[in-house]
Write a structure and sequence with these properties.
Layout: H1 17-32, H2 41-70, E1 74-78, E2 82-85, H3 88-95, H4 98-107, H5 112-117, E3 122-124, H6 128-142, E4 147-152, E5 160-164, E6 167-171, E7 184-195, E8 198-203, E9 209-214, E10 217-229, E11 236-246, H7 252-256, H8 260-270, H9 288-310, H10 319-322, E12 323-328, H11 334-346, H12 351-361, E13 362-365, E14 376-378, H13 379-385, H14 387-405, H15 412-418, E15 421-422, E16 428-430, H16 431-437, E17 441-444, H17 447-455, H18 459-464, E18 469-471, H19 478-484, H20 487-497, H21 518-543, E19 552-557, H22 566-582, E20 591-596, H23 604-621, E21 630-635, H24 640-646, E22 652-655, H25 667-673, E23 677-680, H26 686-693, E24 699-700, H27 705-713, H28 719-724, H29 727-738, H30 750-756, H31 765-784, H32 786-798, H33 805-817
Parallel strand pairs: 1-4, 1-12, 4-11, 12-13, 13-17, 17-18, 19-20, 19-22, 20-21, 22-23, 23-24
Antiparallel strand pairs: 2-3, 5-6, 7-10, 8-9, 10-11, 14-16, 15-16
Helix pairs in contact: 1-2, 1-4, 2-3, 3-19, 6-33, 9-11, 11-12, 11-14, 13-14, 21-32, 22-23, 22-29, 22-31
Bound molecules: pyridoxal-5'-phosphate.
Enzyme class: transferase
EC number: 2.4.1.1
GO biological process, one term: glycogen catabolic process
Length: about 850
Amino acid sequence: MDARFKSRDIERRSLDVDGLKRSFLEWLVYSVGKDARAATRRDWFHSVALAVRDRVVDRWMDTTRSYYQEDAKRVYYLSLEFLIGRLLTNSLSNLGIMDECRQALDRLGLSMDDVVDAEPDAALGNGGLGRLAACFLDSMASQGLPGYGYGIRYEFGLFEQRFENGWQVEYPEQWLQFGNPWEFARPEVLYPVQFYGRVEEFRDSVGERAYRWVDADRVLAMAYDTPVVGYGGETINTLRLWSARATRDFNFGHFNDGAYMKAVEQKILSENLSRVLYPNDATETGKELRLKQEYFFTSASLQDILRRYLQHHSSFENLPNKAAIQLNDTHPAIGIAELMRLLVDQHALRWDDAWDITRATFAYTNHTLLPEALEAWPVRMIERVLPRHMQIIYEINAKFLNRTKARADGDNARLSRLSLIDERGERRVRMGNLAFLGSHKVNGVSALHTELMKQTVFADFHQEFPDRINNKTNGITPRRWLKQANPALSELITTRIGEGWNSDLSQIAALREKADDVVFREEFRRAKRKNKKRLAAYIARQTGEEVLVDSIFDVQVKRMHEYKRQLLNVLHTIALYNEMRDNPTVSWVPVTKVFAGKAAPSYHMAKLIIKLINDVAKVVNHDPSVHDNLKVVLLPNYNVTAAEIIIPAADLSEQISTAGMEASGTGNMKLALNGALTIGTLDGANVEIREHVGADNIFIFGMTADEVNDLRASGGFNPREVIASNPSLKRALDMISTGAFSPDDRNRYHPIVQALTDGGDHFLVTADFADYCRAQDAAMQLYRDSEEWTRKAILNTANMGWFSSDRTVNEYAQEIWDVHPVKPSHDGEGFR
Ligand SMILES: *Cc1c(COP(=O)(O)O)cnc(C)c1O
């Protein structure tokens, strides 16, 4: 008998307003357990989310079944981070039932916005890397690609940021506190993951040397699945996140000793593995728990991938034709040793065969060139935590170096750079080298970044394997970042060019000719103004500050990091403040500086920069001599939800990292797509954004990556000389250093001033200051000509089509994964 229901029989699949309304009520009463009169907004959110989830489930099963029936090649995206944000609007929008839902809520006397706002923001990531993974999930599902996300179901996501006296204070982010209506717990999908113990050598049945990992501690990885709704609701993919569960087997030694509680304590502690996301962005701290998290989710994912493969196949030689595994940075790179272990130790493959399969299956994305951010685990730690993996890594290394040595004619320095082991100081495993060696393709995330990879971190590997490195410039999903976040602009766009851009963003190029249409320009401005009003209200709610909607919204939103140079922006803010005070009769273009971003809790300099922004804001915003001409706001707790409010309202997008240091950036893409003009350096994807939007429609300033490189190679520069020759820079720095913004603690900013002067100004803030101010002036002058500004803003939106993550994911699919779209067969009615 066919166990599947027929769609029309099931009320909970109905997509019309009445059916939705009945479902909301039914869920409220029978699952949330509340009467409509007593229900809170959160109760309604849960009811609505569960009702929406119902409408996804059978298409989800259809999709999974289609992949299975076609034995399609799947891509597995392994990422320690998924910065997803809220899912309600996303699901409704991709299903095409936003209006129906709004009306159904209306009939219940509820506001859609209130219900939407009751959803916590799923912040299982730090910043760009985790958001990229989330955009890729949306794009894979929207293109019908058989893609799975694998990660960790952190109980606590990225910390909540608050400001107390202007200082960042971190609070736990309890996104699961009231339950998560989107996920399905899979208590039966459970894999053991081992740590510690030792390796035993033995002879296998044919007398070959073999190894087993014994006396290890065990934790179980339990799956939670979240459906990933593609645009149009045709394909529903799966994000599988692992949660740590204690094993049921007790240490009977303890038990017999009467140390029952001690045994139970150990069990409880093992579940800490998936408790909390590490809040560091770009720098690693080398903590054992982090290594265990990386191995935990990687091992569980690989076991799951092999189980799925073995449903159809009895030997492993076809694995690379059925599974592509993408490593999002080196965090899951231990998977290379783990797959070798599973194939060789558990499935008795020969080493060389296992290595060929492993390399053909894995591909690796590099996200940073910053040396302090390249993962390198102490050999002693891996030996202790993952003893069998350490042996495997040594074996991979020995075979590789032996082969290389034959051709390297005694260049030992080169061999030691290629080695998986860094022998300088405490011996460490270079995870980037392991990822490179164990992958058939290695990619950077922008054209510049990929070139720099070839010249710097992977120069020797690139010589050795010249076809392995390739570029895949990042992208963003236009569904979340234009359609959902900016209904005003997206509806306007659709009136002119139809809605094809939602699934094919290259079509947005049709807007180019509208840049010269005065009526369209007026409507474009109206949409921007609406978004600016929304942001102004948000700013007032969050900070109490009133900002002028008609000022330039000059926006820098991203993690706080010295290389991203929020300090450069702050110095310009102070210089502008001084100019305005000096020239009160000039008619200034009013400016609102909007900052947002979290600092890693242990990154003292970044936290001091936060305090400085808040201190500058306090002085500037309360100085009547600049009137409304200048406001400075630092919004707390930057996350995806905040980004969705801030980005559509931006006029000017600050992308001002030291050239050569930002791998790609994706915030730059979101802002340009939403009609902000970029002020930026030739760094990361800014280079390609300039090529697409045109050099006339972007404000480029500062040193190039080559110039930065030459300057550093020539022994740097003397920031004191630069400062002395630029009176406005000198004055701004003097104010900071003499306590003009910190009268309560005049020495507070000594470390900042020190870093910019005697510290040598590693990030070249002072070196780029003058040219940055020139570019800022040009932007302010242009803003006076609102027709011309709008024309350029439209050209930005119209020329950003290439930066859709659909394009990025298609490139991965064709050039790295070799996976193809699968059309699920649905027996029910469609969504649109
Ligand atoms: C896009 C995004 C980022 C990345 O921003 P960059 O400017 O590329 O560093 C970080 N955090 C959130 C919440 C984002 O949405």
